[in-house]
Amino acid sequence: MSGASAEKKRGFIGRVFAVRGMAQVITVTIGLILIFIVFSMLSDNFTSSRNLHNLLRQAAPILIIGIAQSYVLITGNIDLSIGSVVGMSCMISATLMTMGVNPWIAVVITMACCLIVGLLNGWLVAKCALPPFIATLGTMTIARGIAQIVNNNRNTDSIGAGAKFFRDFFYYGEFVGLYSTVWIAVALWVVFNFILSRTKTGRHIYAVGSNIDAARMSGVNVTSTVTKAYLVSAFCSCIVGFIACATGGVGTMDAGNMYELYAVAASVIGGVSTLGGQGLLLGTVIGASIWSVLQNGLILAGAPVAIRNIAVGIIVVISVLLDIIVRKGRWAKKH
Fold it and tell me: What is the pTM of this model?
């Protein structure tokens, strides 16, 4: 009986590690625990209830844009326009609200504009065969230009008291002890994780990233699949733009600056492969958490901005390097 139980247990553990990308998730989770312990020892304030609540709220936007970049990376592409779409979303929604437009109508109009960027990215990369770096570099510049021009090249005034529900919904509200931003991130993760792990669309996304030619020969609509990934990216970036707008109550032209790099950091630290075809959104949660814990812990430790950026940069480089080494090793064994 005990032998059968042991065999069943080994079978379960084997199935867990057999899940594509799960080994990386477990590894980075251990890393997150160690980092958390270190900062807990360095500062008593780190584990305070107030700081942990703020830490979760800081991690939420990074998780959302991490989901955005993860979808695109798994297809074997990249989205450099994420940060600019965040800024465009922040500025368009804020500008419309300062003009007296109902906040939720402003949300719909802004979302439509951001999704157009996602469609354009998908069309340029999948249909026109532009390298994703070049295509999304172009749309990054266009989106940032729109963010600048929409309010005559200046930040907006306050979106006003009429937008209180908008600000509470996206940032200041609380439910069951957690800020609304955290709940938005959780809801988006649940939905997009289900799509990626349980639907035909998710299987196609992995297939395109693993071997685009084989996926095409298997009947996968590559153009549609890549476009869907970029639409997810634009949608999530738009939501983060709303969060940025709700946070300060104004539209700022530089909102989302550097967010495309934060998105890559959250994804690759969490085990999403830059080579495509591998990664789990569970890992993106861990990656976003590591980024946030590092930033928060180093701030409490009194580290300057330069040191914080260097620390995150080193971790990103190491994560990508390890992924390349592992993937090349597996490829060599198969061939």
Answer: 0.91
